[in-house]
Amino acid sequence: MNRELPTRPVPESTIVRPVIADCDIHPCLAKPSDILPYLSKRWQEHAMTYGMLPRHGYQSGPAYPKGQPDAARLDSWPPDGRPGSDLSFMQKQHLDTNKVELGIMTVIAPAAGAAQNLDYSAALARALNEWQVAEWTSKDSRLKASIVVPYEDGKAAAAEIDHWAGHKDFAQVLVLSRTAEPLGQRRYWPIYEAAQRAKLPIGVHAFGYGGYPVTAGGWPSYYIEEMVGHAQCCQSLLTSMVLEGVFERFPGTRMVLIEAGLAWLPSLGWRLDKHWARMRDETPHLKRKPTDYIKEHVWMTTQPMEEPEKRKHFHDIVEWIGIDRLLFATDYPHWDFDDPLWAVPVKLDDAARQALFLDNARSLYGAR
Amino acid sequence: MSLPAQGAIDCDLHPAVPGIASLVPYLDPQWADAVSQRGVHDLESTSYPLRAPLSSRPDWRIQGAKAGSDVAQLGKQALDGFGARAGILNCLYAVTTLFSEDMAAAFARAVNDWLAAEWLDRDPRLRASIVVPIQSPMLAAAEIERRAGDRRFVQVLLPCLSDQPLGRRSLWPIYEAAARHGLPIGIHAGSTYRHPVTPVGWPSYVTEDYVNQAQGFQTQLTSLVCEGVLSKFPNLKIVLIESGFTWLPAYLWRLHKYWRGLRMEIPWVDRPPPNIIRDQIRFTLQPVDAPVDGDALQRVLDQMGSDDLLLYSSDYPHWQFEGQDALPPRLPDSLRRKILIDNPLMTYPRIKEDFA
Predict the structure, then answer these.
(1) Do residue A215 and residue B244 have CB atoms under 8 angstroms apart?
(2) Is residue B4 assigned to a domain?
(3) For residue B1, is it within any domain?
């Protein structure tokens, strides 16, 4: 994806790059031990002796090897450390070059919320939050952090949200998509309650290790199946959020689905509406039809943006979802990075571009 | 007055096994004895609770018996009622959910023999899918061999969600046997509940279970493409039954994009996946998961990029539509004819032999 292809040379000086918000940037520890100073001695020892005990089989990586090292752009490796670990490199390669005015950081590795020892999960989440402030947001005001929470322990996650509520550097709460149970279920409700109290959106980023097969039909063989499958996982978790009544019970919930694509949302909504209507006495806690809740409570980041075979079909999707619900994201520094200049497969009008690339994120993350 | 599906082939009808006792005459003695000695229960799947609204339209229910258990009523309501000339029976009696391979094979044989004697022999318009014990690909292939000589069996039936993704190589003996006999593979909604019905854990509601079948089908399609089933058996047709289809365009766009980026992992997939899928995958019509009002469905049909993909189905006795609205409104005449007649005939060679 990031090998250089022969193209017509376009002088950089002739390219007009608009100011953007990037709603999915991945900062990373240069090396795992860099988090130790943010942990208490007890948890430093735990981290070094026992580690994460995640719900997958390898100590040092997933059982689906990525398409390339760290799933990162080959040009995103700083001279020292891993992609996303060096602020000045990120500034030069991405934030400055792509005119990022607002960058929402999503720390997905280490996946603190997926550690099975819930006390360690909470300690690691706190450490990562402090690290984000110390190493990132305090050094570059364009960057805003997402509160990493020990999401399998609803109460502890709520306490972590309460701890950071009101802090200007945190723009949302972050959970991963593949959880121990579907995200609408009541063990997670304290998270939504606390986020509503703190007036923060909930960002759900694709990935995580729930322990169940990553398809409902068992474990697939290939990384490509896992990657394509994130769209299905996110459809399932959104279905759960709607049918369990999370949006009815916590009407202040603003949910952002991150890195799961977007084009699947309309058809999921139609299917939900149809079958909810047939069996609505099963979910009497829902006062409105599923798409009403989705339209009011759900935003989506765009990367990896679907590319219809006939480009004009992209307009159908934007129209059905509503341009006001879409947030541009690059996924820097990952390999499937969407370049703000080229990623959108159709020409949008100026107002739509302004909304997609900047204003939607400003109003979602700024309104507190 | 012409009926809404005049001349159609209905590709998804559900005959109900009235109860476990109905199969006893068709079971080997060992398993016939087991039904009474061990008190084997009725093998109805959790996927379709008998009284749930989805499981049967009110006017298709039968007092004191399961909907879909009466051959004369099915012929009258599902075929005569819409003008269909033939229909395919997909029996969802859940033998694929048993853990014993031997028991599953025995009950699959019984279901198939019961279908032949009590349905196919009684209404010449009916055809059936071969129920197979997916628990053992070897025994499943043997059951295909055993029944394939009866050309009223026109397809091999698999559940959507089972132990392992359907593309996995250990299942290929099933595809090999089906391809050898020119039988399409039909994959029907439902789970054997080996894993949660969602990839993120167990759902709380029947509604949620059913909505999630569409995501299950999507991941199965990914598996069938990526493992190379469709490349290995280029003449094999696979029909997704009761899967919904409005999700297809968005799904294809994502799969295509990731194939461009990761095809080095699956080099045997040497054509764009949307092309492979349009050549070899078909979808039954119901449920039509799109609003009846507005032009959304028309736009989805355009996005699908082919008129060959949809096969008419009433999904009898499941409750997917009201009254005579078996087809969505405002279909162009040419597409309507393809869905009702041409596409089913192109998909099922054995039906074409008798009904073209």
Answers:
(1) no
(2) no
(3) no
**Using omega within 30 degrees of 0 as the cis cutoff, is the peptide bond preceding B287 cis?**
yes
**So what's the pLDDT on residue A367?**
46
Contact indicator for B297, A266 with CB cutoff of 8 Å? no
Residue B12's φ and ψ, nearest 5 degrees, are: -155, 95
b/e burial code for range A199-232 (CB count within 10 A of at least 16 → b): ebbbbbbbbbbbebbbbbbbbbbbbbbbbbbbbb
Indicate the helix (H) or strand (E) that contains B10.
strand B9-13
Shortest distance between the Cα of A316 and any Cα of chain B, in A, equals 8
Mutate to test the interface with B, among A234, A244, A270 (most CBs of B within 10 A): A270
Distance from CA of B64 to the nearest CA of A (A): 22
The C-alpha of B71 sits at a distance from chain A's nearest C-alpha, in angstroms, of: 26
As a whole number of angstroms, the distance between CA B202 and CA B65 comes to 30
Residue A192 placed within a domain: yes
A308 vs B contacts (CB less than 8 Å): 249, 253, 303
Phi, psi of A142 (to 5 degrees): -70, -25
| Cβ distance of A263 and B253 shorter than 8 Å | yes
> CB distance from B295 to chain A under 8 Å?
no
| Domain hosting residue B280, numbered range | 9-355
Nearest in space to A255 (alpha carbons), one of A298, A318, A304, A193? A298
Contacts of A317 (CB under 8 A, 6+ apart): A262, A263, A266, A306, A308, B250
B2 part of a folded domain:
no
Q: Is residue A302 part of a domain?
A: yes
| Cis status of the peptide bond prior to B25, with omega within 30 of 0 | no
Query: For the domain that residue B106 is a member of, what is the CATH number?
Result: 3.20.20.140
A10 within some domain: no
Nearest-Cα distance to chain B for A245, in Å, is: 12
Find, in chain A, the residue whose alpha carbon is nearest to that of B322: A278
Summarize pLDDT for B105-139 with one digit per residue, the tens. 999 999 999 999 999 999 999 999 999 999 999 99
- Which CATH number fits the domain that encloses residue A49? 3.20.20.140
Rg of chain A over CA atoms, in angstroms? 20
Q: Which residue among A217, A243, A272 sits closest to B216, beta carbon to beta carbon?
A: A217
- Residues A342-362: pLDDT tens digits? 999 999 999 999 999 999 999
Distance between B205 CA and the closest CA of chain A, angstroms: 7
Q: Do A240 and B200 touch (CB under 8 A)?
A: yes
Chain B residue with minimum CA distance to A304: B254
Write the ipTM.
0.97
Percent of chain A whose pLDDT exceeds 70? 96
B285 in contact with A, Cβ within 8 Å: no
Count how many domains chain B has: 1
C-alpha A58: how far from chain center:
23
- Name every residue whose Cβ is closer than 8 Å to that of residue B43 and which is 6 or more positions away in sequence: B17, B20, B93, B94, B95, B97, B98, B107
Instruction: For residue A21, tell me if it sits in a domain.
Output: no
For residue B8, pLDDT over 90 is answered with: yes
B54 interaction partners in chain A (CB closer than 8 Å): 275, 278-279
Determine the structural domain holding residue A237 and report its residue range.
26-366
Asked if residue B110 belongs to a domain, the reply is: yes
